[in-house]
Amino acid sequence: MVNASHHLKIMRNTELVTVERDGRFMIYALVGATMKGTRLELAHTSGAKVVLPLE
Q1: What digits encode the pLDDT tens for the residues 16-54?
Q2: What 3 state SS string does 19-53 have?
Q3: What are phi and psi of 28, to 5 degrees?
Q4: Closest to 51 measured CA to CA, from 30, 35, 28
Q5: Cα 8 from Cα 26, distance rounded (Å)
Q6: CA angle at residue 45 from 13 to 7, to 5 degrees?
Q7: Beta 25-30 vs 39-43: how paired, if at all?
Q8: How far apart are CA 1 and CA 14, in angstroms?
């Protein structure tokens, strides 16, 4: 679990994810993520964009 926490911290610091506390749980959400049909599109303010097919 240490690796996951470390990577999530890096993603939070680079504003790729947001985090919200729900009791003892942390809920992470991808910033700039949208669903378009069967694709997940991730866009960053830097202009970087990733498209993932979900089929």
Answers
A1: 899 999 999 999 998 889 999 999 998 888 888 899 999
A2: EEEECCEEEEEECCEEEECCEEEEECCCCCEEEEE
A3: -105, 140
A4: 35
A5: 11
A6: 30
A7: unpaired
A8: 20
Residue type, 33: A
Name the pTM for this structure: 0.64
For 8, residues 6+ apart whose C-beta sits below 8 A from its C-beta are 17, 19, 26, 28
Tokens linked to 51 = 């498209």
Q: Rounded distance, CA 29 to CA 22, Å?
A: 13
Nearest Cα neighbor of 15 from 28, 2, 4 is 28
Nearest to 36 by CA among 15, 54, 14, 10: 54
